[in-house]
User: Fold Nucleoside permease from Brevifollis gellanilyticus.
Amino acid sequence: MKSPAAKKLFVMMVLEFFIWGAWLPLIWGYMGKDGLNFSGFQITMVGSAFVIASILGIFFSNQFADRNFSAEKFMAFSHLVGGLAILGMFWVKDFTTFFSLMLVHSLLYVPTISVSNSIAFTHLKNAQKEFGLVRMGGTIGWILAAWPLYFVLQGKTGVDAVIASRNIFLISGVASLVLAAFSLSLPHTPAKPAVAGEGGFAWVKAARFLSKPYLLVLFIVTFIDSTIHNGYFLMAGGFLGSNVVGIKPEWIMPVMSIGQIAEIATMAVLGWFLSRMGWKTTMILGVLGHAARFAVFAFMPENQTMIIFVQVLHGICYAFFFATLYIFIDAAFPKDVRSSAQGLFNLLVLGIGDFAAKLFFIPLQDKLTVNGVVNYKELFLWPTGLSLAAAVLLLIAFYPPKELDAPADVSH
Assistant:
């Protein structure tokens, strides 16, 4: 990242995911019986804000980002108002206000994930080579927020824990306001008016591209992979802390975070792999990373060392599939709908995939639990099989046109 623009884009990604990483890992405990004492339904409603935002963002926010506002001004406005909303959560304690503020924050924050990608792709000279390095900033930002807060709050109980936990909203809100100001210094990314005769709805044009078989296949595989990806976060914590694996509660998050460290390393070399393996092979490896990890969970649950080691596959799962997906979307869709196209696929990654994972894996785990003991082998064979099916679908049905091929050499 030698250019000043690339360095700014890296900082943008650091701040973008710092905002999310500051509150997400710790908000659940704060809403529970030791904090706000919300009911299970109320906690679920707060957790659904991202799902709602990812759906509505397709129709409104990403549309504005594509057609009506320059992307950097959209980022500035969204993070200003969204930051003020999450700052307000520091003071409120009733469910209605708390949920309303989280919904406002989510409606403004979620589209910026797609828009930040679009800004990066617009100003990177070689997206296949450089996007992994820029997006690596997002993982670093998440870690910079989540890890210190986790270890600071570790061991606190009662009133002390509640008071300390509230600070996640201050930290996230301040970071959002900083990014709002910083966004105005980002390279100018103008709105892209609709092509004459095609109408003004960018999301409609983006959705029409799913009539192309290779994009429809990719859309289906993204849904499957997103469901598996979100299912991992639903199931892994309980599995790692179970009597079978035996990891102490205070070490569950650090163990799961091994995957984020691996993600940084994988992002750094993504361009090299893309140039040599191409879209299909890279994404297949990303999907197979899930299959390998869950197979180890299913067949080697008592091998704690192997369970810990296999967390490094998270880097391959995320970088090789999701980061490659974002790069491919930028190459496959016209400039005037790229934010909406990113939002269309993020609808699966952040919304429908998360919802499907809850609908599928939570009842499945309940069904496979007898007298408090989970049949983890059968449970984890399901995502293993789904991952293999998605990889096979990519192998036999994903054939993008030759003009979308990644460059043969991006090493210089």
Q: What stands out?
A: Residues 407-412 have pLDDT under 50 and may be disordered. Residues 238 and 336 are 44 Å apart (CA to CA). The first helix runs from residue 4 to 31. The chain has two domains: 1-188, 200-412.
